[in-house]
Each structure stands twice: as C-alpha cells, then as structure tokens.
Amino acid sequence: MTPTRQFMEAAPHTTSDATPRPTALRPRGDACLADRLARSVLAREGSGSGVRTTRVPDLLAARARTGGYLVDRVPLDALSGWSFTPGTGNLAHDSGRFFSVEGLRAEVGGSAPHGWQQPIIHQPEVGILGLLAREFDGVLHFLMQAKMEPGNAGLVQLSPTVQATRSNYTKVHRGRDVAYLDHFVGPARGRVLTDVLQSEHGSWFFHKTNRNMVVETDRDVPVRDGYLWLTLGQLGELLRHDDVVNMDSRSVLACLPFAPESASALRSDAEVRSWFTEERSLRDVRAELTPLSSVTGWHRDRWSIAHEQGRYFEVVGVSVRAQGREVPQWTQPLFRPLGTGVTAFVTRRFGGVRHVLAHARREGGFLDTVELGPTVQCTPANHAHLPPDRQPPFLTSVLQAPPSSVLFDTVLSEEGGRFLRARSRYLIVEADESTAPTTPPPDFAWLTPGQLNSLTQHGHYVNVQARSLLASLLTTEIPRSPA
C-alpha cells in the first residue's frame, strides 16, 4: 500500500456514527460572473427601476431640496455629546463609540526622511459597505441609495445599499434599524459576489477598514423610498457627473471581479506582487497615535483645529438635520480640506493593452504602510509654495494635458460622513513616452486595469482613490474577454 493510499483509507470523512458521508465539491469561482458583469456594463439604461440614467442627477437634487436637510457650522464646544477629553485633548463622543479625533506622529525613512504631526480620525471598528444585486431581464442591477451625508457636495448622492458603521447598525444612536442589513449579515444573506476589507483615506484615517461587499439575491426585494435599481452601465454614465456617485459606492464597484481586457501585461502578476512587496519592505514608515493636545504646528479655537500655515485641512463642527436617516438630528466634527484635490491616472497602451501608472504610496494612516494609489494624488494648493523639483511627480503633465488626451474628468466627493465638502478632480489622462516613460521612477509601475482589479480582491493593496478611478475604468469601457 502506498503512503498516499494509506492516508486516504485511514482518514475517511465520517459522521459521528462512523457512517461515510460524501463530500460535495463546489467550483472555486463563478465562471459566468465576469460575463454577467460585462452585460450589466453594456446596459446603459436599466429595467430594474424604470428610471432613465439622465434623470438620476435631477432626482438626487430634488431629494436634497425637499428632504428637510440642514447642515450648519457650530463651534466645537457646542457639539452635543462630544467633548475634549481631559489629559489627552482628544475630541471624542461621550459613548466612547463612533470615532474620535486624535493626534498622529509619523516618520518616513529613505533617501529623503521626514516627519510630521497632525490630527487624524480614529475609528477602530469595521463598517459595512454593501451593494445588493439582482437580475432583471437577465441583467444584473444594483440597489443604490439616494443618501444624505452632511459633508456631501449637494448633500444627496448615490451610496451603496448599506453604508453603516458598526456603531450605527448596532444602534448606539438609539435610532432606527439600518435598511436591508439582513441581506449582508446573518443566515438570511444572499450569494456573495465579493467580500473584502479595504482601507479609507490614509491621510485622514488611522487604520480605518471597511467591509466592501456585493451580495446577490433572487428574492423579491421591496424597494423603499430613496432606493433604486441601476445597472453597472448606468453607474458608469453617472460617474461622469460631478458629485453623483459617492466614494463608498465607487470603492465597492472596484472590488467586483471583472474580466480583464487582456491576459497579457508589461509585468506578470507575480512580478507585480514582488515589486509591491519590495516597496512595502523598503518603505520605512512609523506612525503612532498621540494625544491631540500634544500635536505641534496646529492650533485650536472655538470654531476649528487648523494648521498654523493655513494649509491641509481643519477640524470643524456641524449641526445636522436629516429626516429619513436613522437619527433625524445630531452634531459631529468633520474634517474640512482646504482646497480641491487632484487624483489622476496617467494611461498608455503597450502592445494595444491599456496600462495605468500606479504609485506605491506611503500614508501615515495605512494599516500596511504602503498601498497602490493613482499616478497623482494631492491637493495642489498644499504644494504651491514648493519649487518645481519638489512638486508631486506627473502633476504638471496631468494639469497641462491637452483636452484631446483627457479620457475622464469629473469632480467627485470624498466620504461625506467624516469630511465636509471634500472634493477632488478625478482624471484619466492619455500620455506618451515624453510625459510618462516606459521605465517610470522606482516607486511607480505600469499595471493593467485588470491587474489592479485582481488586487482589489485582497485587502489593503489598492487605496480608495485608485479604487474610485478603477471603478470608472471598469464601468465606462466595454469589457473584453481575455486575449
């Protein structure tokens, strides 16, 4: 008897009464899912909601006007249920939940070592960003929520079906239940299409993680007020409108497993992972939370916590009234960026296959020190005082690109529950050898959208800004089967 045969016979899968029980094997992946996603991308007008794509921005604007929403600035010391903790000076909720504003001290090593201090949001709980999917007439649709967030430009944007922190869905606020939550947690949830932990803004959050989920159901789902079914094609069209599809929706969409445009690329997937692993191992980043009161270079008054040079962002307070939310009225702090950001992928075709130039970025709040970001990710006003050789790489090329080279150009809002009117100009810009060489700087790499998309199936590889741009690439271009 061979050792392998002996092992197989010595360890049968048995029940408690020693009766052999067959083991049912299942496919490791859904071979049809990529084709179903492609069909949804091609469906620029869906049948699930009966709402034409062009009408959606007007519906969101009308809801913002008539929803009874009001957001006012208030002094930090007027925030109900929030206070500065004695000893640390951290701004925290009386319940000890939701989030707190604390201090961060970061140091980056390498050829140009530097360090800084800043306020940062600490929210050590995993939220759920969940999209519910269902087929109508053979086409996948996704249940989107017209959700008000106090920091949103325009107040109401398309969010995932469920967008909730653990404090919210466990009802620390003593408000109403989160709608459709049972589709994502518990035994009644549907078939999982994707489920992965992803980071949020590493410059403003410390180790923040959300569960990005898409779950498919074949049950009838009552559509509540403020929800509508849209295809990926409709969402792709709406991504070309300013401030319509919110950050959380973009993040989840980028995690769906689309079919790659090609099976070939400048670097193999193994080479990409090796390059990225080396970047993580070489980039020395030390970041730790510190008391907010100990942060230097920032000052606090009744109305804000701000940088002494008037750059970056400020922490402010708001009072919110929002009928239809789980809680109709509350106050909270928000981060308010001082300037509009620029977030861009430079793109080229090599051998006829589209590639984007990804940047291995170091941010103080990342859980794993480095994540793949866009080619450019900055707020230009924060760098205006610096000489040209210290400006972010490729920023000038992106901003000075001729209109014929700009494939995507939309102003999109960042997370409206923590940031006040945080907006970035998202661009995808066609380049050539003179502006984006085939051999880029060491911490940049040419990757196909398919390679980036495969990395979003794993947590903390692709940052939230890159996921936003990836969502637009995947839903606004016609997918093709692997070459």
Automatic annotation (TrEMBL):
Gene3D superfamilies: EvaA sugar 2,3-dehydratase subunit
Pfam families tied to this protein: Hexose_dehydrat
Region called Disordered, residue ranges: 1-24
Domain dTDP-4-dehydro-6-deoxy-alpha-D-glucopyranose 2,3-dehydratase: 56-256, 270-473
InterPro entries recorded: EvaA-like, EvaA-like_sf
Name of the featured protein: dTDP-4-dehydro-6-deoxy-alpha-D-glucopyranose 2,3-dehydratase domain-containing protein
GO function terms (MF aspect): lyase activity
Superkingdom of origin: Bacteria
